[in-house]
Amino acid sequence: MPPIAASATLPETTRRTAAPAWLVMLLVCAGQFLVVLDVSVVNVALPAMRTGLGLSELGLQWIVNAYVITFAGFMLLGGRAADIFGRKRIFVLGLALFTVASLGGALAQQPWQLIAARTVQGVGAAVLSPATLTILTTSFPTGPARTHAIATWTAVGAGGGAVGGLVGGVLTEYLSWRWVLLINVPVGALVLAGAALWLTESRQGAARRLDVPGAVLVTGGLALVAYGIVQTETDGWRSASALLPLAAGLVVIAAFLAVEARAKAPLMPLGLFRLRSVHSANGAMVLAGAAMFSMWYFLSLYVQNVLGYRPLEAGLSFIPHSLSIVLGSKIAPRLMNRLGAKTLAIAGAVISASGMAWQGTMDVDGTYLGTILGPGILMALGAGLTATPIAAIATSGAAPADQGLVSGLINTSRQMGGALGLSVLSTVAASRIEAGHGPEALADGYGLAFQVGSMILLGSILLMIIALPRRRADAAPG
User: Fold this and answer.
1) What is the CA radius of gyration of the chain?
2) Which residues, at least 6 apart from 312, have a Cβ–Cβ distance to it below 8 Å?
3) Which of 185, 222, 305, 326 is deepest in the core (most CB within 10 A)?
């Protein structure tokens, strides 16, 4: 799902960059492209990674989740750090961390080394991504120029997610899976050099504290819960290996809430969740993300492990899906003005849920036209239609000064929901796969994951119907 941008004006004094506007946009959009690309680019390479490093079926999800969990947990902290220490400095730091971690992952010889590298990549992405948008909003004056810059940033982010499967397929097919990470190194180094030369530093005038404990606690709690869910598949729900990390994760998340309630400058101000628009929209986004995020993961495994697609064929097969999610994202603002944000969010989720239920009928004899194309387009189109109206509802009840923060919370909720959803659905799929053998069991397991995903999405739809407010502010801005 493409990133969601908040277009609130930032009340601060900043030095304008002397670099040409097009160059500033090129640099920050290149950084954002790398961040979003790495969420999806590894999906097609997963079977090759498994063969090369001896990963287990459940271990594959941590190649994705290690990145997503740290990205989600540190995203709000990254935005706060950019305000305090300077947008250019944090941009350079995040991109450097991301680039070095990409090199480490490409050189990994053991599964834990690759997972560790993906974890560090996620931290770098969380530091880098908020800085890219803030640099744009402080480099372009309010009005058409800034609106165009944010629209370009959003389109580049959507494009990064959309082409990830194709890029991953080409690199894995003609080079190796290591190149899906190694490609970040020359591109990152080039952007780093450009940022050091051309970007001008800016920061928020008022000093604010950095809530590092909050970021560490929420990330650690989420990782422990995800790990506990995974352990239930091999050891059962009553086993100590599952219950202990689950309990520890819940305790850590409770500690996070306690820290946030007392912090003078909390990472996640809990008072915002008193607003119906904020808590209902974030709840709906967690469930929607839990269902939709895993679509590419299971489709990549199905077309390669069951249907026998080569990595390039798998990447090419996802082009209609990618175009559908971009189309949904682009037409969502216009449809919001006609239908209202709540109606559109529900309609998009219904479309996606129907696609998931259809995809859940996959079997070992599936074909591209009969099994992949139709349900894939519905799932992706629905995902594109859903994200923007939910974000609009979340920000509609917040004060102008909180618009950026609430938009960040929505992105964080989507990533956290995706991480937990991948853990749950991978465990569900693995339980069915281990009950059988061969491609038939794989197809049954992946199909069951989509069926359960459609039920999770139905829960999100029910929450939207009951809890989402309907108000004029829900309409998209012109």
Assistant:
1) 21
2) 169, 170, 172, 173, 174
3) 222
Q: Which residues contact 351 (CB under 8 A, 6 or more apart)?
A: 378, 381, 382, 385
Lowest mean pLDDT among 213-222, 240-249, 265-274, 357-366: 265-274
Distance CA 192, CA 459 (A): 43
Question: Torsion angle of alpha carbons 413, 38, 4, 163, nearest 10°?
Answer: -130
- Asked whether the predicted pLDDT for residue 343 surpasses 80, the reply is yes
Distance between CA atoms of residues 467 and 461, nearest Å: 10
Report which of 263, 59, 32, 257 is spatially closest to residue 150, judged by C-alpha positions. 32
- SS3 sequence, the chain? CCCCCCCCCCCCCCCCCCCCHHHHHHHHHHHHHHHHHHHHCCCCCHHHHHHHHCCCCCCHHHHHHHHHHHHHHHHHHHHHHHHHHCHHHHHHHHHHHHHHHHHHHHCCCCHHHHHHHHHHHHHHHHHHHHHHHHHHHHHCCCCHHHHHHHHHHHHHHHHHHHHHHHHHHHHHHHCCCCHHHHCHHHHHHHHHHHHHHHCCCCCCCCCCCCCHHHHHHHHHHHHHHHHHHHHHHHHCCCCHHHHHHHHHHHHHHHHHHHHHHHCCCCCCCHHHHHCHHHHHHHHHHHHHHHHHCCHHHHHHHHHHHHCCCCHHHHHHHCHHHHHHHHHHHHHHHHHHHHHCHHHHHHHHHHHHHHHHHHHCCCCCCCCHHHHHHHHHHHHHHHHHHHHHHHHHHHHHCCCHHHHHHHHHHHHHHHHHHHHHHHHHHHHHHHHHHCCCCHHHHHHHHHHHHHHHHHHHHHHHHHHHHHHCCCCHHHCCCC
For residues 63 and 422, give the distance between their C-alpha atoms in angstroms, rounded to a whole number: 11
Torsion angle defined by CA atoms of residues 371, 45, 425 and 370, in that order, rounded to the nearest 10 degrees: 0
pLDDT, one tens digit per residue, over 284-296 is: 999 998 998 888 8
**Contact 40/296 with Cβ under 8 angstroms?**
yes
User: Residue 15 has which token pair?
Assistant: 């030095």
- Are 40 and 34 in contact, with CB atoms under 8 Å apart? no
Residues whose CB falls within 8 Å of the CB of residue 193, separated by 6 or more in sequence, listed in order = none
CA–CA distance, 379 with 454 (Å, rounded to integer): 10
308: its two tokens: 């026998």
What are the tokens at 69?
């969990």
Give the closest residue to 288 by CA, choosing from 96, 440, 456: 456
pLDDT (0 to 100) of residue 287? 93
Burial class (CB in 10 A: 0-12, 13-18, 19+), 292: buried
